[in-house]
Design goal:
Helix content is about 50%, strand content about 15%. By secondary structure, the protein is of the alpha+beta class.
Length: about 900
């Protein structure tokens, strides 16, 4: 954290803009690069210290805050009290090892989440060397000129130099929930924080308008820094799934303890066994049956999923989203930039005198203009000096615009909105540059674009006449215009003709904008009333934004996976339907407009929500209603958004998805996931990864529990039969530890199964341990029980010592578990193939490690002393390997029987999602 300067803070709110610039030795064009670098060294980065995560000692202690671990600790203390010092010491040692494994794994998980959080560091629009640039907000320095607009998080304390309908939400600073209107005037030096209207404070959210401000304080010297408010803390690694496992652990512990007590009592009362021996048998049963490594393994599985998603541009902000992704049944997606490339190119202009075709694709300002006759462009290019209407139209497109075109590292790039950038590029093709036009025709005032009004307006002086210029949605501007202007002559607006032209452009998949103007006298501050009356239409421009190739493939994957992609766009319905058809959407017979949504009741909207895939001319408020309607029909929704007004819909959705490039800070704050590349295919990739993570967690649970079940049943059966225990408590704990540390982790690294995106979405209400998993756990537990007891009994019958018999039983249990690990790679699919058996390096790596550990456990003298083991002969190992192979084959036969009976390995639950699935299948 940058240390605050100890000088008396300056009352920047009491200074006018020019005086503030003078104090900081700045200019209205911003700092140059060298001076900015010098000031960054002097003032340090513009960062507040993040809230600290759990200290290491607390994270270590919390490993023991688990009922399963507490049972083991109590067992160790009781063993010590009974004089079993070696047993007690070993139990304590193994408990500590398991705690350390969880400690390090959670540490890695928290580091992974923190590194991913750094990927979401905010950006800032600044003027450097007179040019607009996007830089990390932490590089801002006092004296920088910053541009902020609706949806941005203010990156530092700013003294406002220009403000247009500018309002900020200052609840994070003042607690005031009502947005504050801002101005550029100085206020009294003793004004309260909430009354300093000439300031925009760091961490506050811009809810309307735009502004240009001078950075006056950064980092700890900002108001938010002075009151020591910390940024968001480290996210807790407790997700619904982990809580479900914790609850299952508590229930399991209750039953295990009950079984241990009843088993011990049975041995004493029925077989007359010594109380101390039966207590140790009960301890052994508890130790054997408790899966103490499970919570840590599930945590690392979730963390691995988060890391993998981040590498594929899906940044998870809240860990539970990893689980929810596997249940997504509907993706509500914006069109521009998400389903399309967001590489807008102006392709056609409709003027009163006819259509003009513009050559060239992309942001390079190369291309000519051609008249269109009979639907085809003329070969001869237009001379813009002879076409006043076209030249004027292009001028208006640049002036009523905030984007800039710049050449960086040999490539042309747009600074600002790509839609506005397309108009700048079109003008540049005609030799009209933004620098020259905006220099000659300075902007006097502006009404920024807001989704509610669907237009932007600016005030300029052109050819000695004050003109109000308006750019916006064509249907909105047609409502506001009554006349049309061509080559300096006005005529009555033929609404039907222009609607036909809008439809023509839209049917080609072009996004349509309209431009208009009006003369305006003696107005210095614009209001909506000025822009919405007496406008004269200049023409239309059609912008090409082709679908992403990868989005087309992603839509196919969605439909195969039972996931409905739904487009929500502000574009014309015809444009949206044309793009939806190109993308391969399922229901493209009709589109519903925002106005139609407004005219529907909630019940009516719920009726049509499953039948329509395209919603056009929709606003952020409509998004919220669509999410609610889909959820009412049982759908699990992902919703994309980029604007400040998308926040309610993002929060209401099961997984809110914000855009990382075009998205505002407000949208990112409301979302569970941020797309670093704004790409629809990335959402589908994240769903695939979410399904894989859940799959692997189910596989891990299905694998681990039979190991515990087999041991516990062996000890219980021995006590009930009045025979010798085949596995001691210490040996059981050893097995639990090595299996959890080696074999248990392997399945977290399993690759995605080929059919994972051909399954229906998982029901979020389905139980983790459903009937299928319970059957598999019991079935394999019984197989391991037979193996353990069979090996133990056979060695005793051959005249072997009790130590030898137990050593054989333990190795049979471990090697049987290793064989079952290969079965567990696929819950129902057969692994009887080269890919199935040898296709996973982590699986065979873990088998190699556990084999080495077992050889050491069996033959090393100090291990033999601690665990009472004894060396086995090659013949014994041969029998163990034969038994393990038999277990593997029996499980594969069981899978085949279940497949033949049509059993599914996917969790099911009655309830939520039924309506949605029925509609999808119809």
């Amino acid at each position: 954290m940058t240390e605050p300067r100890h000088s008396e803070p300056t009352a920047w709110h009491a200074l006018d803009g020019d005086e503030a610039l003078k104090r900081l030795e700045g200019t209205s064009d911003g700092l140059d690069g060298q001076e900015a670098a010098r000031r960054l060294d002097e003032h340090g980065p513009n960062q507040l210290q993040q809230a600290e995560g759990r200290p290491w000692w607390r994270r270590l202690l919390e490993q023991f805050n688990n009922i399963l671990m507490l049972v083991l600790i109590v067992a160790a203390i009781a063993s010590l009290g009974l004089g079993h010092t070696l047993d007690a010491g070993a139990i304590f040692g193994v408990v500590l090892i398991i705690a350390l494994i969880g400690f390090f794994q959670e540490g890695k998980a928290e580091q992974a989440l923190e590194s991913i959080r750094q990927m979401l560091s905010p950006q800032a629009q600044v003027l450097r060397d007179g040019k607009r640039e996007t830089i990390p907000a932490e590089e801002l320095v006092p004296g920088d000129i910053v541009l902020v607009e609706s949806g941005d998080r203010v990156p530092a304390d700013l003294r406002l130099l220009e403000a247009r309908r500018f309002r900020t939400e200052e609840a994070s600073l003042t607690g005031e929930s009502t947005p504050v209107d801002k101005a550029i005037d100085a206020v009294a030096e003793d004004a309260d924080l909430g009354d300093r209207t000439g300031m925009a404070f760091a961490s506050t959210i811009v809810v309307q308008g735009n502004a240009r401000g001078l950075v006056v304080e950064t980092a700890a010297n900002t108001q938010i820094g002075r009151i020591s408010e910390m940024l968001r803390g480290v996210e807790q690694l407790k997700t619904p799934l982990l809580r479900q496992i914790d609850r299952a652990g508590q229930v399991l512990a209750f039953f295990i303890l009950g079984a241990a007590v009843l088993t011990g009592a049975f041995g004493v009362l029925v077989h007359g066994q010594p109380l101390v021996d039966m207590f140790m048998a009960a301890v052994g049963l508890a130790v054997a049956a408790i899966p103490e490594g499970l919570p840590a393994i599930v945590t690392i599985g979730l963390a691995l999923g988060v890391q993998t998603m981040a590498k594929k541009n899906a940044i998870i902000r809240r860990l539970p989203a990893v689980e929810t992704l596997g249940s997504i049944s509907t993706i509500f997606s914006d069109k521009t930039g998400t389903l399309t490339r967001n590489e807008m190119t102006a392709q056609a202009i409709w003027l009163p005198g006819g259509e003009v075709h513009i050559e060239g694709i992309g942001f390079e300002p190369e291309g000519s203009f051609h008249r269109v006759s009979d639907g085809e462009p003329d070969s001869e290019s237009l001379d813009l000096d002879d076409d006043h209407a076209l030249r004027h139209f292009l001028k208006v497109g640049v002036l009523c615009n905030d984007a800039e075109l710049a050449k960086e590292e040999g490539r042309w790039k747009i600074q600002g909105d790509p839609t506005e950038g397309a108009l700048v590029v079109a003008a540049a093709k005609a030799g009209l540059t933004t620098e020259e036009l905006r220099g000659k025709h300075d902007r006097k005032d502006a009404i920024p674009f807001e989704s509610e009004r669907k237009y932007m307006a600016t005030l300029h002086e052109l050819e000695g006449e004050p003109l109000l210029l308006v750019k916006g949605a064509p249907d909105r501007l047609l409502e506001m215009c009554h006349r049309v202007r061509g080559n300096g002559e006005d005529s009555e607006l033929d609404v039907e003709l222009w609607e036909e032209r809008i439809h023509d452009l839209s049917s080609r998949g072009l996004r349509v904008l309209a431009l208009a103007e009006r003369s305006i006298q003696d107005v210095h501050e614009l209001t909506d009333e000025h822009a919405e009356e007496e406008l004269v239409l200049l023409g239309l421009v059609g912008l090409l934004d082709p679908p992403r190739d990868e989005a087309i493939e992603a839509v196919k994957d969605c439909l195969a996976a039972g996931i409905r992609p739904v487009m929500i766009t502000g574009d014309h319905a015809v444009t949206a339907l044309a793009i939806a058809r190109e993308l391969g959407f399922a229901h493209t017979e009709r589109a519903i407009s925002g106005r139609e949504i407004e005219g529907m009741s909630d019940a009516e909207l719920e009726e049509v929500i499953l039948e329509v895939d395209v919603f056009a001319r929709a606003s952020p408020e409509h998004k919220l209603r669509l999410v609610k309607a889909m959820q009412a029909r049982g759908g699990i929704c992902a919703m994309t958004g980029d604007g400040v007004n998308d926040g309610p819909a993002l929060k209401r959705a099961d997984v809110g998805v914000a855009m990382g490039i075009q998205g505002t800070e407000a949208a990112k704050e409301a979302a569970e996931m941020v797309l670093a590349d704004d790409n629809f295919a990335t959402i589908v990739g994240a769903i695939r990864e979410g399904r894989k993570v859940y799959d692997n967690i189910r596989k891990t649970i299905t694998f681990l529990l039979p190991t515990n079940g087999g041991q516990g049943l062996a000890i219980m059966l021995a006590v009930l039969a009045g025979s010798t225990l085949p596995v001691t408590p210490l040996q059981a704990l050893w097995v639990n530890m090595v299996v959890a540390v080696t074999l248990g982790l392997a399945l977290a690294f399993e690759h995605t199964e080929p059919d994972i995106m051909s399954r229906q979405p998982r029901d979020p209400e389905a139980s983790l341990l459903d009937l299928f998993l319970l059957w598999r756990v019991v079935f394999v537990s019984l197989l391991l029980l037979v193996g353990v007891f069979g090996m133990f009994s056979w060695l005793l019958a051959q005249g072997g010592s009790i130590e030898l018999a137990r050593t054989g039983a333990v190795n049979m249990l471990v090697m049987g578990s290793a064989a079952y690990l290969i079965n567990s790679r696929f819950l129902l699919r057969s692994t009887l193939s080269v890919e199935g058996i040898f296709g996973s390096r982590p699986v065979w790596g873990s088998i190699g490690v556990i084999t080495a550990l077992q050889l050491g456990w069996t033959y090393l003298p100090f291990m033999q002393v601690i665990f009472a083991s004894e060396g086995l002969s090659p013949g014994h190992w041969g029998l163990i390997l034969t038994g393990s192979l038999a277990l593997y084959l029996i499980v594969e036969i069981e899978k085949r029987v279940l497949r033949a009976r049509g059993v599914s390995s996917q969790p099911t639950a009655s309830g939520r999602g039924d309506d949605h699935r029925e509609a999808e299948s119809s």
